[in-house]
TrEMBL record:
Main location: membrane
Assigned protein family: Belongs to the major facilitator superfamily. Phosphate:H(+) symporter (TC 2.A.1.9) family. Belongs to the major facilitator superfamily. Sugar transporter (TC 2.A.1.1) family.
Sequence intervals crossing the membrane: 49-70, 90-110, 122-142, 148-167, 179-197, 203-221, 285-308, 320-340, 347-369, 381-405, 417-437, 449-467
Protein name: Major facilitator superfamily (MFS) profile domain-containing protein
Keywords, sorted A to Z: Membrane, Sugar transport, Transmembrane, Transmembrane helix, Transport
InterPro entries, alphabetized: MFS_dom, MFS_ERD6/Tret1-like, MFS_sugar_transport-like, MFS_trans_sf, MFS_Trehalose_Transporter, Sugar/inositol_transpt, Sugar_transporter_CS
Coiled-coil spans in chain: none
Membrane topology: Multi-pass membrane protein
SUPFAM superfamilies in the record: MFS general substrate transporter
UniProt cross-references to Gene3D superfamilies, sorted A to Z: MFS general substrate transporter like domains
Length: 485
């Protein structure tokens, strides 16, 4: 009897154990399969985000084409249209005035007609401007066309990074927003290189190509979900968010987070330019505007606009130096885009600022040596090294990261106004730097670059003390952290 009882108990235990083991194994396999399937779905779900980013950064490429147009075409335009140096200087610098007007109006326009609407309008201005330059027979048509393209640049410089930041998942936001600066660099580099092979009128027509791609692509991609939520289009908001995240992805949590944040902001009064200087917005305003000040007054546009003359003054062949300059900035900007969501915003800014100081010091020393006839053969190499270190350092951090941070730190109720202010400051700095560069070089070449080195050294202190790290946070979490501080 005891043996029968023991045998029956053993059979029962075995029957109980067997299903549990099988079920556990099945459950483990199922979990692994789900994890693998989830990864696959995640990649597929981001296709629309990548496509939308590609379409938006066509505007950034158009931006770069405008910036790079004047450098390789200067002698040909002056010769064909009999322009004086003063007339061509006006043609080159009026771009920044158009961009300043675009910066002032970009925020309200993007808030009123949407991010896609602002990009459409900006593309139309650029196309009209390039056509005016192509058909120009005198200085007036050139200046009108250049102003129109400048206006389009000013709008693009604000709306493209904002649109990308608003559609991107938090883990991709930094890298995707940095592509904005990468495509600007590509546009400048392509204009520099093909400008040596094409006539100035044909080069103007190439500027229409990215605008045409952008206008076509805007018919395919969704509008910014955050903007749709802000204006109360609930159905379109959910549809746009689902298109960006995928059909099989649960968007309820992200949608609720965005809606809660929008509802909170709706309780706040609408702001104008003077309201930005209230205490509650001071931290965001200081960070956004401060980064734009240091980005421009560190000397980038003076060096970029007059790279050829810098190389000539130092005794290095300008054509070779300009091509090297154009080529090197693209891969380094791509490196910055790859690192921004891994290393973070602040580390890249600090590394970039340090490189800018070193580049300015090397270039300044080369002019000092040449001016005092010391190591004359080494001076050109030192100048080229300094400029390349400068542009490489700018491309990896200070070129792109301020735009990324600007698109992240402003609350959505002031994003339009505050973004316009920051972009206006940026373009004013671009004009001031490019306008004063030749005067400073005439005064003292060595002193010019030492002055830029000092500004970039101050930017390092500003980043350490003031700029917050925004890596890995949603836009709503960033606002909560800034408000808490």
């Amino acid at each position: 009897m005891k043996e029968d009882i023991e045998q029956s108990e053993n059979r029962v235990q075995e029957e109980i154990k067997a299903p549990l083991i099988i079920q556990t194994n099945k459950r483990l396999v199922t979990d692994e399969e789900q994890a693998e399937n989830g990864c696959c779905e995640k990649k597929q779900d981001r296709c629309m985000v990548y496509l939308s980013t590609f379409v938006a950064v066509c505007g950034s490429f158009a931006f770069g084409s405008c910036v790079g147009y004047s450098s390789p075409t200067q002698s040909a335009i002056r010769e064909d249209l009999n322009l004086s140096i003063a007339e061509f200087s006006l043609f080159g610098s009026i771009l920044t005035f158009g961009a300043m007007i675009g910066a002032i109006t970009s925020g309200p326009i993007a808030d009123y007609i949407g991010r896609k609407g602002a990009m459409r309008m900006s593309s139309a201005f650029c196309v009209a401007g390039w056509l005016a330059i192509y058909f120009a027979q005198g200085a007036l048509s050139l200046d009108i066309g250049r102003s129109a393209t400048g206006y389009g640049m000013g709008v693009f410089s604000y709306v493209v990074p904002v649109f990308i930041a608003e559609i991107a998942p938090r883990d991709l936001r930094g890298a995707l927003t940095t592509i904005n600066q990468l495509m600007i660099c590509c546009g400048v580099s392509v204009a520099f290189i093909i400008g040596t092979m094409l006539t100035w009128r044909t080069l103007a027509l190439t500027g229409i190509i990215p605008c045409a791609i952008l206008l076509f692509g805007l018919c395919i991609i969704p509008e910014s979900p955050r903007w749709l939520a802000k204006i109360g289009h609930q159905k379109e908001f959910e549809l746009a968010l689902r298109r960006l995240r995928g059909k099989d992805v649960d968007i309820s949590e992200e949608a609720a987070e965005i809606q809660d944040y929008i509802e909170t902001l709706e309780k706040l009064p609408k702001v104008n330019l003077f309201d930005l200087f209230q205490r509650r917005y001071s931290s965001s305003l200081i960070v956004g505007v401060g980064l734009m000040v240091f980005q421009q007054f560190g000397g980038i546009n003076g060096i970029c606009f007059y790279t050829g003359s810098i190389f000539e003054s130092s005794g290095f062949p300008s054509d070779i130096g300009t091509i090297i300059y154009a080529i090197i900035q693209v891969p380094i900007t791509a490196l910055g885009a790859a690192l921004i969501d891994r290393a973070g915003r602040k580390p890249l800014l600090l590394v970039s600022g340090t490189g800018l100081v070193i580049g300015c010091m090397l270039t300044g020393i080369s002019f000092y040596l040449k001016g005092h006839e010391i190591a004359i053969k080494a001076a050109p190499i030192l100048a080229v090294t300094g400029i390349l270190v400068y542009i490489g350092s700018f491309s990896v951090g200070m070129g792109a990261v301020p735009w990324v941070v600007m698109s992240e730190i402003y609350p959505i109720n002031i994003k339009g106004t505050a973004g316009s202010l920051a972009t206006l400051v940026n373009w004013f700095g671009a004009w001031a730097c490019s306008y004063t560069f030749n005067f400073l070089m005439t005064w003292n070449s060595f002193g010019t670059f030492i002055l830029y080195a000092a500004v970039n050294a101050l930017s390092i202190l500003f980043v350490i003390k003031i700029v917050p790290e925004t890596k890995g946070r949603t836009l709503e979490q960033i606002q909560a952290a800034i408000n808490a501080s």
